UniProtKB/TrEMBL annotation, chain A:
Organism this protein belongs to: Endobacterium cereale
CDD domains the record matches: TM_PBP2
Protein name: ABC transporter permease subunit
Family listed: Belongs to the binding-protein-dependent transport system permease family.
Protein's membrane topology: Multi-pass membrane protein
Domain ABC transmembrane type-1 residues, every copy: 86-300
A Pfam family the protein falls into: BPD_transp_1
GO terms under cellular component: plasma membrane
Signal peptide region: none
Alphabetic keyword roster: Cell membrane, Membrane, Transmembrane, Transmembrane helix, Transport
Subcellular location: Cell membrane
GO BP terms, alphabetized: transmembrane transport
TrEMBL record, chain B:
Annotated localization: Cell inner membrane
Entry keyword Lyase: no
Membrane topology: Peripheral membrane protein
Domain annotation ABC transporter: ranges: 4-234
Family in the record: Belongs to the ABC transporter superfamily.
Keywords, alphabetical: ATP-binding, Nucleotide-binding, Transport
Protein name: sn-glycerol-3-phosphate ABC transporter ATP-binding protein UgpC
Pfam families linked to this entry: ABC_tran, OB_MalK
Organism: Endobacterium cereale
Keyword Ribonucleoprotein set for record: no
CDD domains from the UniProt entry: ABC_MalK_N (cd03301)
Length: 311, 356
């Protein structure tokens, strides 16, 4: 019945063609603003950036710009500095995420308990997050500088340093400078999210557990952790991707030095693009980093799915 | 199982005193219900017995041992929460066995204890379900199961049935009573529902404003309420109150009706009193008997009929099983049998019978 009615309608469609065109394009017009915005802001730069990876683009060479295929990737596969940066990235990301998470969790647990002036302390604790990363980097670089900063002198007085030197220029320990700055800067992120998760745990669960005979640690283990697990999984995933991409502190504090000891992939990209002005090569490295991080994310999502299905 | 002794216990938050000198002796195996309106301090008292709230003053003893400073985990009591407080990440068996695992009891014994509690509560088919996959009534059972596997010194119930629908509440009420009959466990039960209090309790503790108003068997509270608060709180629909004056063994109501009391009271003539009568004790009669009142509202409950009357401008309730009341006209006549009158003095306390 409806079929015949439809056919009948179509035959009888006497609308002017402008009207028909307008009706047909209506849904596209409605969604156009959002789609255009996404394409212009996200997809175009992504495609252009990826295309650079296959072209020879050097700012100082007016004859560059041609398509060179996979040449950048061949160079990259033999680039020792890249492998060093890859290893440094693992270290930088692992240490930063681990320390940020550990201290963030401790801080969240402390802030979860009521005490006088908690509101003020909470506000203060979250302050580092509001400091621009470049400013944080400069600040910590100065703190580590024996000429103006106190830290080397304290370490010397404690006997941890043979002389008040700059940790940032010590090939063995230089990476700890940006890591410490990063931990200071990133703790609030974990503290905020974990505190929010902590506060959503019903209090009477803890009461029931303590009546059941659970000690503080047993309550933490069988109530707090299971409740926090989803938040922990998602924040650690986010922060891992974020930190491995996060070159600001390294660029400001060490510039990747001494002797590439603090060079991570992200700062190596920055160095290639804005110091060597080789945009093509920098894009190729960025593409590799993108693929690595996508693979990592997929892995975590798969892991999460399996855990969820099991749970 | 154990007795619980509460001596002069006080509780204050800062300057706000919420419990005043509570004195209560709970015998081994007794089922005591703390009842009162919200904010009367009954839950606070229960939480103090559990150790979840500190004791500001006085002494609390479980089985003769002072527990004021004892951590909840060392008091060997079990509690059923209003929200059930089941561990969402553990299945039913895990919830029930958690406390035993913490006590490092042998696996076989735990399994046996869980199995026996589960069969008592009809939870066998649900043992590997998570709490979120259970209905409200099932969760309630798990919470009870978690308490009984422990074989604790005492059971504490904090409004355990408030989150259930009426039918389930009635059913669980009967089950709790039956379980108490089987286990003979010392139990303290907090509720604001006076029906729960009446049906479950060996003794009821009626509380108001952080003060114990009356302690006694359910029918004692019903038949001989110690003061206006208990009289008004116990019983549904609630007791009617009328202003009156006492003189020479009878009370005179405002409209001049005189009701001779069965026994003289220890009151001076002319004393102002409040007379209370339960809606089910009011007698309705025809023209010329008792006082005239107008009918505001008729509520048939199926079992009986509640008539909302206006007696000299005062709201007044009558409960009757007589269906003829449904067709009562706009005006009825009520009278008060003297043996069912409760007389309270100006302070609101029950008037003592004059000694002969």
């Amino acid at each position: 019945m409806t079929m015949t009615a439809d056919v009948y309608d179509r035959r009888q469609d006497r609308r002017p063609w402008q009207k028909r065109l307008a009706d047909a394009s209506e849904p596209y017009l409605y969604s156009a603003p959002a789609l255009i915005l996404i394409i212009v802001v996200m997809l175009v730069p992504l495609v252009v950036g990826i295309s650079y990876a296959f072209r020879d683009i050097q700012l100082l060479n007016p004859f560059s710009g041609g398509f060179i295929g996979l040449e950048h990737f061949e160079t990259l596969s033999k680039d020792k500095a890249f492998y060093v940066a890859l290893k440094n990235t693992l270290w930088w990301t692992g240490a930063s995420v681990f320390l940020q998470f550990t201290f963030g969790l401790i801080l969240a647990l402390l802030l979860d308990k009521p005490f006088v002036g908690r509101g003020l302390v909470q506000a203060l604790v979250f302050l580092p997050w509001a400091v621009p990363s470049f400013l944080a980097g400069l600040n910590w670089a100065w703190l580590f500088n024996p000429v103006i900063g106190p830290i080397p002198h304290w370490l010397f007085d404690l006997g941890l340093m043979s002389q008040p030197g700059n940790i940032l220029s010590d090939p063995q320990y230089a990476m700890w400078g940006p890591i410490i700055a990063n931990v200071w800067w990133g703790i609030p992120f974990f503290a905020i999210t974990l505190l929010a998760a902590l506060q959503s745990i019903p209090r009477d669960l803890y009461e029931a557990a303590s009546i059941d005979g659970a000690s503080w640690f047993q309550r933490f283990w069988s109530i707090t952790l299971p409740f926090l697990a989803p938040t922990i999984a998602i924040t650690v995933l986010l922060r891992t991707v974020w930190i491995s991409n996060f070159a600001d502190l390294i660029v400001v504090m060490t510039g990747g030095g001494p002797a590439d000891r603090t060079q991570i992939v992200a700062s190596y990209i920055f160095t290639q693009a804005f110091k060597a002005l080789d945009f093509g090569y920098a894009s190729a490295i960025a593409l590799v980093l993108l693929v690595l991080l996508l693979a990592y994310s997929m892995l975590i999502i798969l892991l999460r799915q399996t855990l969820l299905n099991k749970g | 199982m154990a007795s619980i002794d509460i001596q002069n216990v006080k509780k204050a938050y800062g300057h706000v005193q919420v419990l005043h000198d509570i004195d209560l002796q709970i015998r081994d195996g007794e089922f005591v219900v703390l009842v009162g309106p919200s904010g009367c301090g009954k839950s606070t008292l229960l939480r103090m017995i559990a150790g979840l709230e500190g004791v500001t003053g006085g002494e609390m003893r479980i089985d003769g041992k002072r527990v004021n400073e004892l951590h909840p985990k060392d008091r060997d009591i079990a509690m059923v929460f209003q929200s059930y407080a089941l561990y969402p990440h553990m299945n039913v068996a895990g919830n029930m066995s958690y406390s035993l695992k913490l006590r490092k009891i042998a696996k076989e014994k735990i399994a046996a204890a869980v199995a026996s509690a589960a069969s008592k509560l009809g939870l066998d088919p649900l043992l590997d379900r998570r709490p979120k996959a259970l209905s409200g009534g099932q969760r309630q059972r798990v919470a009870m199961g978690r308490a009984i596997v422990r074989q604790p010194k005492a059971f504490l119930f904090d409004e355990p049935l408030s989150n259930l629908d009426a039918r389930l509440r009635e059913q669980m009420r009967a089950e709790i009573k039956k379980m108490h009959g089987d286990l003979k466990a010392t139990s303290i039960y907090v509720t604001h529902d006076q029906i729960e209090a009446m049906t479950l309790a060996d003794r009821i503790v009626a509380m108001h404003g952080g003060v114990v108003q009356q302690v006694g068997a359910p029918l004692e509270l019903y038949d001989r309420p110690a003061n206006l608060f208990v009289a008004g709180f116990i019983g549904s629909p609630g007791m009617n109150f009328l202003e009156a004056t006492y003189s020479g063994g009878s009370v005179t109501l405002k409209d001049g009706t005189v009701v001779a009391l069965p026994v003289p009271l220890a009151l001076a003539d002319g004393a102002k009193v409040t007379v209370g009568i339960r809606p089910e004790h009011v007698v309705m009669g025809g023209e010329g008997t008792g006082m005239a009142a107008s009918v505001d509202l008729v509520e048939p409950t199926g079992f009986g009929i509640i008539l909302h009357l206006s007696l000299h401008g005062l709201a007044f309730k009558v409960f009757t099983l007589d269906r003829a009341a449904l067709s009562a006209g706009p005006n009825v006549h009520v009278s008060f049998p003297a043996q069912h009158l409760h007389v309270f003095d100006e302070k609101g306390d029950r008037c003592a019978v004059a000694s002969a």
